[in-house]
Each structure stands twice: as structure tokens, then as C-alpha cells.
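Bumping my old thread because nobody answered last time. Still need a sequence for this structure:
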């Protein structure tokens, strides 16, 4: 049973890669809050800049301000980190200070894409946006900046808990991002979150045509309840 639970995220990721995400950021956010009572979505300042969506387990990078940092050393450390990352991973990078520095750009996006990583989520900035869009590489960040974080930040830790967009993200937590934003499911509650998210999403989708039919939310709920009683 333990092995099956460990394999579930990988199997789900394979399904996502083939079909697109089965659970939206909204449904994951709702499911996590229902199950844990804690907020699961990042601030809306972390927004979609390139690509369409991402989903996968988090690998994390924490960067701290250091004006004496070597840009070369930080760049090489980031390269090694990305090249060692399992395919399908979502790279979650957080700057601990000023956010108007670019953590990733076209070269790192090209590397991440060839390594079949799922995307970037950056509590900071990115650059080379036109290339990121051309690559269609899923990228979420606070915005863009022409200046690099190299030489101003050093990598303080990888695969450690980070604060990103107002919530904690731990290595292995499941990250879902789309046009609504980014939500994170704790890895230890992953199977429960997926089941609850899909149920919530199905209920919402079932209500939409009924609301359009009746022009009333309450009548839609009434018809939905009647239909469920007769199933």
C-alpha cells in the first residue's frame, strides 16, 4: 500500500502530461482548505506569464540577498540543480528580498524544457519573456525584470521548505498552476486532495448548464439535488 501511494503522483503526472490537468488550481485550493483548514493558493501577484498550465511535484530553491555573491557560482549551482531534477518537476524558486531581479530566462527555460521539467514558479521575476512565450514553457512569476539575480543573490538551499507567494512549499508538494493562479497540495495529503478536487470540480461543472437553463442558482441547486436523489 505504501508503494502504491508513492507511485500515485507519478501515475497522475503521466496522465496530466498526456491530457492536460485533471484538477484546476481552484479545485486543488478548495480541496486543500476543506481537508486541512489552511490556505493553499499563492498571492495573485504570482501569475501566468508563459505557457498554459503546469502540474507536478515541487523541487525548491531558496535565494538570499548577497551583494558579494558570485554570479558564476550561482549560475553553475542552478544548472546542476536543474540537470539533476526528475522529469515532470515544478521548479519553485523564492527570493528572500527585493523581487525585481530575474531568476530565470531563456537559457534556463531551454534547459528545463529539454529536461522535461513541468515549469517555473518564481517568487521574484523572470526575463526574456518573448522567448519563454515562444518556447511555451509554463512560467509563473511576479513579473519581468531585465536584471539578473546573479551577483545579487546566492542559492541558500535547494529542496528545502520555501515561502513562495505567501504560502509554504515543501519538496514533493504537488503544484498546480493555470490562468487562475497557483495552488499547492501537501504531498502527505496528495491522494485525498486529488479525489476531493475532482469531486468539487465535477459538481461545479454540473451546475453551470443548470444555472444557464434556469437563470437561477437556487433552482439549479434544487434540480441538481433532485437528480442526485433519483440516481
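Sorry it took so long. Here it is:
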Amino acid at each position: 500500500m505504501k508503494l502504491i501511494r508513492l507511485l500515485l503522483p507519478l501515475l497522475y503526472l503521466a496522465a496530466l502530461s498526456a491530457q492536460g490537468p485533471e484538477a484546476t488550481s481552484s479545485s486543488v485550493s478548495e480541496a486543500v482548505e476543506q481537508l486541512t483548514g489552511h490556505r493553499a493558493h499563492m498571492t495573485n501577484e504570482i501569475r501566468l506569464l508563459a505557457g498554459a498550465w503546469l502540474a507536478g511535484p515541487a523541487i525548491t530553491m531558496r535565494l538570499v540577498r548577497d551583494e558579494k555573491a558570485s554570479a558564476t557560482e550561482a549560475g553553475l549551482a542552478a544548472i546542476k540543480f536543474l540537470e539533476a531534477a526528475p522529469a515532470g518537476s515544478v521548479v519553485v524558486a523564492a527570493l528572500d528580498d527585493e523581487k525585481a531581479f530575474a531568476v530565470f530566462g531563456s537559457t534556463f527555460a531551454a534547459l528545463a524544457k529539454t529536461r522535461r521539467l513541468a515549469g517555473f514558479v518564481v517568487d521574484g521575476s523572470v526575463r526574456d519573456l518573448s522567448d519563454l512565450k515562444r518556447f511555451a514553457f509554463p512560467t509563473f512569476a511576479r513579473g519581468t525584470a531585465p536584471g539578473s539575480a546573479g551577483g545579487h543573490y546566492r542559492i541558500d538551499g535547494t529542496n528545502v521548505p520555501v515561502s513562495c507567494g505567501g504560502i509554504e512549499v515543501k519538496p514533493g508538494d504537488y503544484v498546480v498552476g493555470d490562468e487562475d493562479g497557483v495552488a499547492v497540495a501537501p504531498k502527505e495529503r496528495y491522494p485525498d486532495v486529488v479525489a476531493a478536487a475532482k469531486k468539487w470540480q465535477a459538481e461545479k461543472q454540473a451546475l453551470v448548464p443548470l444555472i444557464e437553463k434556469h437563470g437561477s442558482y437556487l433552482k439549479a441547486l434544487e434540480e441538481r439535488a433532485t437528480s442526485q436523489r433519483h440516481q
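The two ends are 32 Å apart (CA to CA). Let me know if any region looks off to you.
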